[in-house]
What we know:
alpha+beta, 11 helices, about 35% helix, 8-stranded mixed beta sheet
Amino acid sequence: MCPKLTNEKKCPRTNNLSMFKKILLLTSVVIIIFLSLTLTRVDRTPYKKLDFYKKSIHEINQYLTENCNASIGDTLLIGFAKVNLTPSDLAPLAGYGNRRPKEMTRVHDSIYVNTTVINNGKNKIAIVSADLLIIPPEVTLILKEKLINIDWSLPEIFLSATHTHSSLGGWAPGLVGNMIAGPYNAKYPELIASRILKSIQMAEKKMKIGAWSFNELSMPSLIRNRLVGTQGVTDPYLKLIALKSGIQEGIHVFYGAHATCLSSENKQMSRDYPGVFSDWMVSHTSLDFAIYSAGAVASMGPEIDTRQEFDRSQFIGEEIAKQVALIHEFGFPYGDQLNLKFFRIPLFLRRPMVKISENWAFRPWIFNWAFGHYSLEVSMVQLNDLVMIGLPCDFSGELAVELYEYAKSKNLNLIISSFNGGYAGYVPDDQWYDLEKYEPRSMSWYGHDNGAYFVEIVKLLIDYAQS
């Protein structure tokens, strides 16, 4: 025990204990303040009760009422172009957060921008596919400014990507961008935008009298539900647009299997299986070009077997190509009449958050700091009874199957494409929102019923296309 002391002195042990309590209290207060500033409960308010929903529906309806640009022209012109996008340096690769280092070691196969320009004499569109993970938002901002100089506008451009996980990175500033696509360098989004622009100009110059048709194939053996396996739905449908330009003939296909045959261990730049598909079609058939775009890829993966890396991408790409080649042998039912309309409309969402558990998430300001804040849009092109909808996300193949059936009930065909120049993370089926898996836990940023909201928006556009 401490000996008796005068009023002027205190026991050192008591002094130390008092100081410890103060430090502990101060630390606790700091921790509580920090947690309250960074964490929040996961918002489970139904989306229809939130202001963003009312604003979104109002603006979409108003836009669709005021901006009907459908037209039937007297001459159908089509042109296509392929522009090399391969960087001249050892750039970072985009696609896997756990790929270390990000810098590629070599080019296994070159990457490209493929563009088809369609002009019916009154309206024109460009359907673009780039061998990239996504069309980065930074690229869209640059492209929007550059298009003015060549008499094009962003609504006339239907942007898409192959979603290869072994392509050019370095295009996204911020913490999340660095994790997914490697260190940011402004020259890479500039490169991508300039090559897209070049491809549009080249395709437009090559336009000749054209024709087109739509086809659909079911390929269930090459795709799987990578999220929940046989508990969930798989989107087996490959959507195919056949095109003629003068004496040239080509195809543009959309399929839902993630281009992840090459793992995070791969450090070589590659188009993955979409590149194999395109090269095989041109080499083994009479087609002059073959373009691939990612469809509704969320929760969908390529069917896994014992093959690894490039052997796997070769197998998947060739198998898809062989099935497409079979229907090509019988010829496509071409037509040269085209009612064409297009638009891009703003998409409003609830405030973003990144979940760290079932009921807790980082606050929206943390998300915006780590990822950045970009506007989001939905793009749509309609070619007669074919509706093409481009979404700014990894959209679920499970949700897409429902929408295909809805479109058919309206006597329409539907293509859903992801990565239209914005990015809102994953949009899985809402029933899986609380699973402790990558897609619904870390990458579903906009709420427990975001899937239902996206489905409602797409159905609204299908209804508009029918009118």
